[in-house]
Amino acid sequence: MGPFQDAKTWAVELLGLSRDAMHIYVGLTVFLLVAILFRLPLRDWRPLAAVVLVAIAGEVWDLFERLRPEQTPFWAASWHDLWNTCFWPTVLFALARFAPKALKR
Fold it and tell me: CA 63 → CA 1, 3, 24, 35, 71, distances in Å?
């Protein structure tokens, strides 16, 4: 295992969460922190873009750590992780962007 995998395992054990839950929490944390730190509304595309970039960077790092002769990339797991990380921030973004318009009708 590489340092990134070791750090993820340590965080999972420390917080007592599953790896899937960690992806969800990371996605929501990045989304909300970017919005708060840069004073952006949740309907702005940039907090969601930050989540997508962080999720992709994490999966690329995972894939590079698996680029060894004895291991092969597990593409389904990477897509699953991307989905888990991006789903709820995307829901919040869509609600913030489109729900106020729908309610005014």
Answer: 12, 13, 20, 29, 10
Structure tokens at 42: 């949740």
pLDDT at residue 103 in the model: 60
Query: How many domains, the chain?
Result: 1
CB atoms within 10 A of CB 42: 16
Q: Output the six-digit token pair for 57.
A: 């960077």
Q: Residue 78: give the domain boundaries.
A: 3-104
Rounded to the nearest 10 degrees, how much is the dihedral formed by the CA atoms of 3, 51, 26, 100? 180
Give the predicted TM-score (pTM) of the model: 0.85
Average pLDDT value for residue range 14-35: 94
> Residue 100: is its pLDDT beyond 80?
no
